[in-house]
Design a protein that fits this description.
The longest helix has 11 residues. The protein has 146 residues and is mostly beta strands. The protein starts with a strand and ends with a strand. The chain has a 4-stranded antiparallel beta sheet, with no helix packed on it.
Length: 146
């Protein structure tokens, strides 16, 4: 099972957008939008990170906590550059997810394409449905779904 860590993060993200303070720092990174769903025997989590270089993304798993950090750097700079409109958020982005014991954190797969970081987290073997044999005193074992 996938659990969100902070119920107020979405409110904080919206507040940052409205107030124009969407530049993340190391001490206060901006939240990144994500989708999460189960597809068969795996959970899929997709993070929107447009404009982020693949080498600026960091993934860590410690115990059952998945941490995703990314940094979007300015694309233009220099003495002759005078920014006219700057609406794209820059700086640090971070998201932490608590992964339940039913997920296999040893076999997470990550892919980054078209500005979307997609993680595939398999369901742990002990969490998958399985058959359990039932035996009676005078009969052969039979299978039922657990």
């Amino acid at each position: 099972m996938l659990m969100r860590t902070d119920p107020f993060r979405e409110l904080d993200r919206l507040t940052q957008q409205v107030l124009g303070t969407a530049t993340g720092t190391w001490s206060r990174p901006t939240a990144m939008p994500m989708d999460a769903y189960r597809a068969g025997d795996e959970f899929v989590v997709a993070f929107d990170l447009p404009g982020v270089a693949p080498d600026a993304i960091d993934l860590d798993v410690e115990r059952n906590v998945l941490t995703v950090r990314a940094e979007r750097r300015p694309t233009v700079s220099g003495e002759q550059v005078e920014m006219q409109v700057a609406e794209r958020p820059l700086g640090m982005f971070s998201r932490q997810l608590f992964l339940g014991d039913s997920l296999d954190t040893e076999h997470i797969q990550a892919a980054y394409e078209a500005g979307v970081l997609t993680l595939r987290i398999p369901v742990a073997e002990q969490a998958k449905p399985r058959k359990i044999a039932i035996t009676g005193a005078d009969e052969e074992p039979r299978q039922i779904n657990a």
